Each structure stands twice: as structure tokens, then as C-alpha cells.
Amino acid sequence: MEKISLPKGTRDFGPEQMAKRQFIIDSIKKVFQRYGFQPLETPAMENLSTLTGKYGDEGDQLLFKILNSGDFLKEANKQNLETGNWKLATGDIAEKGLRYDLTVPFARYVVMNRHEIAFPFKRYQIQPVWRADRPQKGRYREFYQCDADVVGTDSLVCEAEIILMIKDAFKALGVGDYSIKINHRAVLSGLAEILGARENENSLFVAIDKLDKIGEEKVKEELIARGFNTDSLATLFEVLNFKGSVAQKMEMLTKTFANSEKGKKGVNDLSEVFSLLENYGSAFDHVEFDIALARGLSYYTGCIFEVKINNVGIGSVSGGGRYDNLTAVFDAKEKSSGVGISFGIDRIYDAMEELKIFPKETSAASTILITHLDNDGFKYGLKTVQAFRERGIASEIYPDQVKIKKQMEYADRKKIPFVVVIGPEEVQTKNLTLKKMETGNQLKLSFEEIATAIQLHNNKD
């Protein structure tokens, strides 16, 4: 018999894991809603014509393609198949693919529904995406993204509010040690301009994006292979490795870009974002201006963001940026500027597990377990558990009449914080025994007293 297994890069999530994941999703969703974003969902699969060409050549190779239904080889061009060229062959046997991210489907939605949308359009979307990447720690082939985007405005208020949302989200999650890196694509375009590499700037962006992964020497090797000379690389890394405050970096770049309009545009936009943050009354804590931040996706045109949780062996947990031309690829007349941020649920989960900072309450499915010593206690417990539920308290009753020790073990394994014990005395007096599992303390209380105490406990949490 074949051993059952999961596809590489995918995972099952049991009840305890799902409770923690839901805590992350709910925390971020509340932040999105507080900033005026509305929910949206799009299909898991899109036409390949929608997806290809939006993520660069490397991104296109990571798309999961869906084979056409039926005898998909029958109509295929045999010559295309025999070439071994995956691009030619794919066009004949696959018309659809699993979405790579939520931004491109969002842009497609905006273009298709532009006459019904009120602009600026603020939406959030929490759904799985798929990438045919090499699985490793913190990198999966199926993972959830938590996106918020604004489309239909050029205002840099949106960039400032993205930073504020990131801060609010990590505060809600209880993550205190993290860094928000910010840069601007025009700063990188300005670097390409002063290096005399305007025609080769995408190669420059892709290579710089790998700095954290492969290091400076390997990036230099890649750029030399792409036609950059050693003199230009010396200039490039002199800028990328510059250390100093935000103001000092701005001053250095202003001088560097004296003859680069693109570079000036990037510096001016970043300066305004920092000024807006000051006007919001937000400190620059956790915010770092990183000149080497590139982000590999080719559709970014303005400010770009990347967030890392410090002291964990996981890469970025959030990223995003402004894209001025994404909707135009679907309709040349539609050139709505947009900006967004994406939180990686799976990476945030892994980081919080590594740091052991999930609240204890996230693992508890129920607040109260009703236990019973005999049949009369069981019958009384059925009415009691329903009364707790009517008060909005998550409750359950142990379904079998077994020894009390086994019922307590069940509560302990499910991390249920409170247990009500009902025996002959409780049925007669109507005063129930309430046990707090964490301390083992027991009290005799009426139903009303227990319900009030539990509601206060829940509100405090």
C-alpha cells in the first residue's frame, strides 16, 4: 500500500494550530477594518494570461499551471511539445493557473468592475496563494496572504498609513521586536541611471533583492555576469552600504542624484512619507530607511516596504509597495495608481511559535466544560451548558458518563480554563462547583455568579 503523504510545501493544521492562525487573521483584519478597508475574495485560479508577465521571468516560472481538462494533449501542437520550451508547451496544454499573489487578481478585479467601484478603493483580502518554490523553513508552496490595498490615488498618505497599520498589527499580535524597512523604486532607478544601466535596471533590482539571501560577493558575481563592470559596482555598493540616520542617508542621496530626476523623485517621496508620519504623531521606532531594499516583483514603481521580526530564523513576514501601472496591463486606458501591503500568515505564525508569544487563551476552544458525577448530574448539565451558551459563553458538556478523572484530563488536553462539576449536591442546592484548571482552586457558586465571573474574565482578555 502506498504511504499517504502531503505534497511538499503544504501542511495540515489541527485545531490548536488553527486557533492560533485565526488569532493572527482576526487581529490583522480588525486593523484593516479600523483604517476603512472592505473585504474582497477572488477565485483560486486565474487565466494564465492574467498572471504571466506580471512578476518577472523568475515569478512566471514559479506559477502553478493547471492542465486543461479532458484529453489536453489531443489539441496540443506536437512541435511545441517537442521543443522542450516550457513557455511554448504551456500555452497548448494549460490555460489557467493558481494565483501567485493577491495583488494581480485585485488589479484584474478593479479593471473589470471599475464602473461600480468608488475610488479611492480600499480593500483587504485574506486567502491562500501558491508558488512552485523550493520548500524550506518559513517558505511554503501553499500559504495565506493578508493583503490591504488602496487603488485610485497617488497620495503618499496611503504609504504613511501602511506603516501605521503595520505598527498596529504587530501591537495587536504582541510582537514588539521587529523592523519596517522602506525604500523607493525610483531610488534604485536613480542608481541604475548614474551607473549608466537604464536598459538593465530590472536585472539590477533582481540581483539587489538577493543581498540578504546570497551576500554581497555573489550579487557582484551575478551583476558582472549581466554586464556590469567593477567600477560601477564599486559606486553601487558605496551607496548601498552607506550607514547613518534617515536624514544623513537623504543628504547623501540628494548629492548622489544631482543629475538623476528619477533618483530625486524617490528621495522627495520618501521625505514626504517621513514628514506625514510626524504629522500623524507617530514615532520612527521600528522604521528603517534601507537603500538596498529592492523587492523582486517587477510591478512596483514607488515606495516599497518589507517587515522582519527580529531574533527569529525566518525571512520577511510582510511586504508591499506602490504600483502605478498594474491595472494598465489589463486595459491601456486604465492607469489607476495603487499601493498595498501583504502579511504572510504562515511566517508570522512560525515566528510567534519560535518566540512563544501566543496568548494562552488562543488554544482554548471552550471556556467551560460541564462535567458530571452521575446520570442526574448529566441531565442537569445539559440545561446548564445551554444556559451558558445563551449568555454568549463558549461551553461544552462531556458527552459520556465516565469517571471524573477522565473528564478532567479532557479539559486539560483541550486547555479549557474552567470546569463545572455537577453531582447530587449541586443538583439539590443549585450551587455549582467551579474549578479553575490553571490553579486547581474550587468554589461553590450559583449559575449567575459563575456566568458573571466568566464574562468578566473574557472581557479582561
Describe what you observe in this structure.
This protein is α+β, with helices and mostly antiparallel strands. The protein has 2 domains: 15-43 and 100-355, BirA Bifunctional Protein, domain 2, CATH 3.30.930.10; 364-460, Rossmann fold, CATH 3.40.50.800. The protein is 44% helix and 19% strand. The chain has 18 helices and 16 strands. It has helices at residues 15-34, 48-51, 56-61, 78-83, 86-93, 103-112, 157-173, 185-194, 201-208, 211-225, 230-240, 246-256, 261-280, 345-355, 375-390, 404-413, 424-429, 447-460; strands at 38-39, 45-47, 65-67, 94-98, 121-130, 142-151, 178-184, 287-289, 303-309, 318-323, 338-344, 368-372, 395-397, 418-422, 431-436, 442-446. The strands form 3 sheets. An 8-stranded mixed sheet has the order 1-5-6-11-10-9-7-8. It has a 5-stranded mixed sheet with strand order 13-12-14-15-16, with helices on both faces. Helix 15 links the parallel strand 12 (368-372) and strand 13 (395-397). Helix 1 (15-34) packs across helix 14 (345-355), helix 7 (157-173) crosses helix 13 and helix 9 (201-208) runs antiparallel to helix 10. It is globular. It starts with 14 loop residues before the first helix and ends with a helix. The mean pLDDT is 89.
> What would you give as the CATH superfamily of the largest domain?
Bira Bifunctional Protein, Domain 2
Helix content: 40-55%
Largest sheet at a glance? 8 strands, mixed
**Count of extended strands:** 16
Which fold name is given in CATH as the topology of the largest domain? BirA Bifunctional Protein, domain 2
Distance between the termini: 49 Å
Strand-residue proportion: 15-25%
Cα Rg: 28 Å
Q: Give the CATH architecture of the largest domain.
A: 2-Layer Sandwich
- The CATH class of the largest domain is Alpha Beta
Provide the structure class: alpha+beta
**Domains, number:** 2
How many helix segments? 18
In order across it, which strands form the biggest sheet? 1-5-6-11-10-9-7-8
